[in-house]
Every structure is written in C-alpha cells, then in structure tokens.
Design a protein that fits this description.
By secondary structure, the chain is α+β, with helices and mostly antiparallel strands. The chain contains 2 helices and 5 strands; from the N terminus they run βββαββα.
C-alpha cells in the first residue's frame, strides 16, 4: 500500500500568484491566486501542490477544512520526509 500523509495547510486566497510561503510550525503556508468561491481555491491549492510534489492531481485532496483557511490535505504516494524534501526545492521565479 502506498504511503499517505496528512499535511496541515494555512491557505491565503486571492493572492497575486499561487506560491508556497513557507512553514508555520508543522503547517505549510500557501498563497493561492484563486478566490474562495465554489471550491476554486481548494482546487487550485490541490493542483498546485500536486504539481510541486510531482504527483498526479488526484493524489492531493482536502481531507478536512474545505471552507476554512486551515486545512488538512491528504497526500497519497508520499510520506512526511518525501513531502518536506520535495517542498524544500526552490520555486521558479
């Protein structure tokens, strides 16, 4: 069975661009360009993190907190160490 990880995330919607802002304790702070309307911010968050982690889009989804700024994302196929390692890579400007 492939590993999975629940990643705590603090989401800032309506940002100028989608970017990972860094870690707040054990939570990842992510700025999302999409507005929090009709699930657009959640979809943008999941798609962006899946791409950054090198996973298919279906491997990242909101496990808890769909309407809150603090969420738990389920990441299928990676463990904690792999998630931190892949998110530590520098972003493209």
């Amino acid at each position: 069975m492939p590993p999975s990880y629940l990643l705590p995330v603090k989401v800032i919607p309506n940002a100028p661009r989608t970017s990972v802002a860094g870690w707040l304790g054990d939570a990842l702070k992510v700025r999302v360009q999409a507005a929090p309307v009709e699930g657009r911010a959640n979809a943008g968050l999941c798609a962006d993190l899946a791409a950054r982690l090198g996973l298919p889009g279906s491997a990242v989804n909101v496990a808890r907190g769909t309407t809150a700024s603090r969420k738990l994302l389920r990441i299928e196929g990676l463990d904690l160490a792999a998630v931190h390692q892949r998110l530590a890579r520098p972003e493209n400007p």
